[in-house]
Design a protein that fits this description.
alpha/beta; 8-stranded parallel β-sheet
């Protein structure tokens, strides 16, 4: 599996899948999704989630892990039960393999939490026998991640000794206040545990700092994010040549609890910031918010992609424009994925004609 220079962590949620689906094929072939598997809405079986994902991202390889942020509510079904068997520690490998077997483009993140090294070796054998790459995803998210298993040095030694190149490494920090806060940790882990792996192996550093609270934003305001700077720092402080950019595509891990209906707003991603148009005192009309974005210094207007056209259409008052927050989320995700996939080298719209048809 060829891992691209942008690894994006996505949940099985409508806005994420919609934003991904509407990308040009040219853009899709420049990113590697890492899917966090959970039931698709209220449907069963759990494989429906993989079906929905592959509708949005067809005929291309991706990584898949279990979404440990998902919570089962009081309406049990088969999909939730299956997810529960995967999310328990240690996860049920028979269930995991049975699920992934039918999806040749799904490349497993090894279920490592509370697993003995023997069962991890079994997972590598399964991946290879089924022509898959695999991923060593270290879940370092505060309060949720299982961290780095004690047997990692032994496993890395074994992989290095055999010259294995059929895997990727991901340091996942989940939601953080500021990505730069994890730079020292990421560099330290890379230098301590992975200094002997072949230079071709990608090490992705992933986190999200997308705001949790929008009440401070009023009018049109930009909020910078420092994931790119994080990667530059880790590159400088490790000797590994393939440090890969990772983020959550402008989303956050699932949250539970009482949430108020969010006030209308339009979000617009630039290369290194998110621009928010909303009103503090009342809910702004989508058309008004979109006009603020298209009239701002941040607007590029020349990307030639669905999300930007949707904001443009909303500003112009067109029918079928953004009239719900989920539509707005999908547009935002779509623009962000495109910008990060071509970071610093955005292609002209005419270059985006499908290089293959989905």
């Amino acid at each position: 599996m060829d891992i691209h220079e942008y690894l994006v962590t996505l949940g099985v949620r409508p806005a994420e899948l919609s934003g991904l689906q509407e990308l040009p094929g040219y853009t899709k072939s420049r990113l590697t999704p890492l899917l966090l598997l959970a039931p698709w809405l209220a449907t069963s079986p759990l494989s429906r989630a993989l079906d929905k994902f592959e509708e949005a991202y067809p005929s291309r390889p991706y990584f898949v892990d279990v979404d440990t942020y998902y919570r089962i509510n009081d309406k049990p079904n088969e999909a939730k039960k299956t997810w529960g068997r995967l999310a328990q520690q240690p996860g049920d490998l028979g269930v995991w393999w049975g699920l992934l077997e039918e999806y040749p483009n799904a490349n497993p993140c090894l279920l490592m939490a509370e697993q003995p090294i023997e069962r991890v070796r079994d997972q590598i054998i399964w991946a290879r026998e089924n022509n898959r790459s695999f991923c060593l995803r270290m879940n370092l998210a505060e309060g949720i991640g299982s961290g780095i298993p004690q047997w990692i040095p032994t496993l890395v030694n074994e992989l290095a000794k055999e010259g294995a190149t059929d895997y990727a490494v991901v340091f996942e920090f989940g939601w953080v206040q500021d990505p730069l806060l994890v730079a020292t940790f990421a560099s330290g882990y890379a230098n301590t545990f992975f200094s002997i792996i072949p230079p071709i192996i990608p090490i992705a550093v992933s986190c999200t700092s997308f705001p949790k609270d929008f009440t401070p934003y009023d009018g049109t305001m930009a909020e910078g994010f420092s994931n790119r700077e994080l990667i530059a720092q880790v590159k400088r402080t490790t000797n590994h040549p393939r440090i890969i950019y990772g983020d959550w595509g402008t989303t956050k891990p699932r949250r539970y609890g009482h949430a108020n209906q969010p006030r209308n707003r339009i979000d617009y991603p630039t290369d290194n910031s998110w621009v928010f148009a909303r009103d503090k005192e009342k809910s702004v009309a989508f058309q008004t918010a979109a006009s603020r974005i298209t009239g701002s210094e941040h607007w590029s207007g020349q990307l030639g992609i669905w999300g930007e056209q949707l904001i443009e259409g909303t500003a112009a008052g067109q029918p079928f424009a953004i009239d719900t927050m989920p539509q707005m989320y999908a547009a935002r995700i779509n623009i962000h994925l495109h910008r990060q996939a071509f970071y610093g080298h955005l292609p002209p719209p005419e270059a985006l004609d499908e290089e293959w048809s989905d």
